[in-house]
């Protein structure tokens, strides 16, 4: 089979398409014949070895991870809840950039037969992260929400899901006029260019000066610190990524939190492991919403597997809106 492997860290040119053996699913694993594979900002961080998650401890050669949609081609020992031929999706930290991927069977989710494969890449991680962060924030109808990176693969879903729950206003940040207009087309009530130094003032103005009830932060660094300052009393900030490259912990005074502000984090793997029923319920709701078109998963581009370097360059240019997807059998 063809797989994209790393033998060293570096720029997108270190990604190499190579012929390798098809993996054998081990105990508790299934083998997926891939139809579509997501490319996200996290994978560009992995390629450069700056991905901050503690579970990222790879050994060369590395096949990067992501969301995989396809059919079960083989089943390892001890797996009885899926069958060969089932259409499924899964997020895996390693091994996704390939025609076949062996994954933990516990992470496998059903995918509707009539859902486009590129569209379905919302189901394993971006959709659950969007709904999971909103659920962690305990969003109530009528509360204001600030969604950072609102034109990205997760952010544009977060905007739509917040609107479906009756949030208002939904405030979206992005980094260009085209991205701001895209966020507005997803349902954002207010759009703010985070490259403008006055963006916090614009957010305050959008809430009538009282501050934001919920902030969904995938940027980190100074943006996180400014977000805590922007929270209304009893406001909640949920941190789930560091796309801004700010890996250092920002200085936050305990006196800010004593003003009845809440700061927490979200990790998909922890949510899935500790609240599996909630996780599966959210998956079913999102799959139905995508199938009926009430939630849109915007795919910016689909590329063949051999164009993986171009996919990474597109991600790092930050010029895209929505998702970038590899099609291994195009």
TrEMBL record:
Domain Enoyl reductase (ER): 10-326
Keyword entries, A-Z: NADP, Oxidoreductase
SMART domains documented for this protein: PKS_ER (SM00829)
Keyword NADP: yes
InterPro entries: ADH-like_C, ADH-like_N, ER, GroES-like_sf, NAD(P)-bd_dom_sf, Quin_OxRdtase/zeta-crystal_CS
Pfam families, A to Z: ADH_N, ADH_zinc_N
Protein name: Zinc-binding alcohol dehydrogenase family protein
Taxonomic source organism: Streptomyces heilongjiangensis
